[in-house]
Amino acid sequence: MNLVKRLANLGYGSRREVRHLIRSGAVTDTAGRVLGEKEIVAHEEIRVLGEALDPAAPLTLLLHKPAGYTCSADDPGAIVHELLPPRFARRQPGLHPVGRLDKDTTGLLLLTDDGQLLHRIIHPKSRCRKVYHATLDRPLAGHEAALFASGDLVLKSETRPLLPATLEILGEKEALLTLHEGRYHQVRRMFAAAGNHVVALRRVALGDLALPDELAEGDWRELAPEELDAIFAMRDIE
Ligand code: URA
């Protein structure tokens, strides 16, 4: 891919702006040699204003989503993309959230420009495990674990029962809930069906990939290849 297209696809500007940038001498190799528009140079060798290029596609990011950000531009309010460098919003292919978290839900959210990966994780057949930490308004009554595990629970305005889900009680008003599907507001609606109300919700794991302790709310980093394998680890179904 030529330099203009490559930089434009990474969000450094329109092709016109990138041509300008190149002509200004801002694009060099690691040795400081000014690059021309037609040059074919390895990604790792290119510098813009002395800085290494953003990672090439395919790119997957792991974000610790804070409350108050939506996953879709169709919803009102700030969108998770605002937590990333502005250049990332102009990348082609674009970065898309892998499944949605509600505006008030915090925790592990992936963003990827890899359509196949996105499909592989969110496709219902993938049964990819998602673990949520829920804080509840009222003490757990005792019947919730059996109800969620039954495979018989039908949520309001739905007809198909939920897949069995696992509840691990952590305290009077605190539990981990493991799901193998992702229906709209699923955790909140499950607890509502059990007569409770979720006051705080955090996704703590996707498959065997846990939300890293060192990643503060609002922070993100590139997902490592071995972390991808952890997402598809299957444990407690079948
Ligand atoms: N279930 C919910 O209710 N909300 C989320 O954000 C994710 C799962």
Notes on the protein architecture:
The protein has 238 residues and is α+β, with helices and mostly antiparallel strands. It has three domains: 50 residues, Structural Genomics Hypothetical 15.5 Kd Protein In mrcA-pckA Intergenic Region, Chain A; 87 residues, Alpha-Beta Plaits; 77 residues, 2-Layer Sandwich (Alpha-Beta Plaits), CATH 3.30.70. It contains six helices and twelve strands. Helix 1 packs across helix 2. The chain is elongated. The model has no long low-confidence stretch (mean pLDDT 95). Bound molecules: uracil. Uracil binds next to helix 5.
**DSSP helix fraction:** 10-25%
Rg calculated over all Cα atoms:
22 Å
- In whole angstroms, the N-to-C terminal distance is 45 Å
Mean pLDDT: 95
Keywords:
single chain, 238 residues, alpha+beta, Structural Genomics Hypothetical 15.5 Kd Protein In mrcA-pckA Intergenic Region, Chain A, Alpha-Beta Plaits, 3 domains, nine-stranded mixed beta sheet, three-stranded antiparallel beta sheet, 6 helices, 12 strands, elongated, binds uracil
Write the layout of secondary structure elements.
Layout: H1 3-9, H2 15-23, E1 27-29, E2 46-48, E3 51-52, E4 60-65, E5 96-97, E6 106-112, H3 115-122, E7 130-136, H4 144-149, E8 166-171, E9 174-179, H5 186-193, E10 198-206, E11 209-210, E12 220-222, H6 225-231
Parallel strand pairs: 6-10
Antiparallel strand pairs: 1-2, 2-3, 4-6, 4-12, 5-6, 7-9, 7-10, 8-9, 10-11
Helix pairs in contact: 1-2
The structure holds uracil.
